[in-house]
Amino acid sequence: MSQFTKAIVVTYPDQFAKDEVIGLAEAGEYEVVRVVTQKDIVRSSYGVGSGKAQELEGMVADTHAETIIIDESITSSQANNLAAKTHARVIDRERLILDIFAKRALSTEAKLQVKLAELRYQIPRARDEVRHSTKGEQAGFMGMGEYEVDLKFRSLKRQMGFIKEKLDKSRKVRDLHTTERRKLGIPFVSLAGYTSSGKTTLFNRLTTESKEMSPNLFTTLSTTTRMVEFPKMKRKFLLSDTVGFISRLPTYLVESFKSTLEELHYADLVLLMIDASESKESIGIKLESCKITLDELEVDPNRTLLVLNKVDLLDSEARSKIESDPLFNGFACVKVSSTRGDGLHQLRTKILERTDPRKLAASLDTTPSH
């Protein structure tokens, strides 16, 4: 891990928060050398208590950490104050997530979405940044009598408008593809779920069962969309992988990626992945985060199938009872192991049942427009 940047993480005391932010830090190419906990993170001018800030200063000196990651949203002033105190770069949870997305954005559309999220992140921090750049001095009048901060806001909003126009064009193209797909009667199944729940592993499992790939069909859809075919049954469907969800995901980030995530809204069936091998507390938190995001995207719960993944990691008793857990009330469930292959036959059967062309045709008349 020598290529990773050493970082100290400040997070909440519960184990879920600690595990998640360490995972995020590692995804952002940081080596976590210390984990510091505090019940109230955003109270003071440092974003942490003054005593904790003093403690962090010593830790930076001891560990030679270059970055402090605060597992919460903090202001530019708080970040600047803590950076000056500790002599380390300070970033918050939102900045960390944005950096991860920026590194992994490959397509033009994904890059635009990350840029839009970046601008939305900057807007509430623009005033602090301008004040910091002038070292606390009152920003003077500039051309046309406008304050420097006002010019910054105008510039950010102009850039946002430009990017939104481009993303809107992408959205219209995707809507056209959706219309054409419906005319051809090919069901669309979309994988959703918490990050690291095993979505991509399951995606690979299901798509390798396809005996025929059709690269010319819907070529402008995401490169993670593939055709899955069952020749004996003369049935086929499109399967798409999507961005993983995460707890405390900022609303503006969901908004920025809405043009891609809206595939979930239009899907005939959403496979909502959950890692069933985790603790009940962790599953509950992650499932609630997924439900909130799906609600924001106006995904019909009746078109959702809960996929309890990694059941091979459970003992036989837990495996036999998992789907009857009250946590999953209101969901149709299927148990699988995407790595070992357990339950895949049952999952395929459920997918075929839920995407029966006759049922889908009947539901189209009652599906509200978006």
Provide the descriptors you would attach to this structure in a database record:
10 strands; alpha/beta; 3 domains; disordered C terminus; Rossmann fold; 14 helices; 6-stranded mixed β-sheet; single chain; 370 residues; 16% strand; 4-stranded parallel β-sheet
Taking pLDDT < 50 over at least 5 consecutive residues as the criterion, the unreliable ranges are 136-145, 209-223, 366-370
The third-level CATH topology of the largest domain is Rossmann fold
**Amount of beta strand:** 15-25%
- Overall pLDDT: 82
The CATH level-2 architecture of the largest domain is identified as: 3-Layer(aba) Sandwich
Question: Could you describe the largest sheet, including whether it forms a barrel?
Answer: 6 strands, mixed
Roughly what percent helix?
Answer: 40-55%
Total helical elements? 14
How far apart are the first and last residues' alpha carbons, in Å? Answer: 46 Å
Write out the CATH superfamily name of the largest domain: P-loop containing nucleotide triphosphate hydrolases
**What is the chains' assembly state?**
single chain
Number of domains: 3
The shape, in one word, is globular
**Quantity of strands, as a count:** 10
The neighbouring-strand order within the major sheet is 6-7-5-8-9-10
Going by helix content, strand content and strand pairing, the class is: alpha/beta
What Rg, in angstroms, do the CA atoms define?
Answer: 23 Å
Helix-strand sequence: EHEHEHEHHHHEHEEHHEHEHEHH
CATH class of the largest domain: Alpha Beta
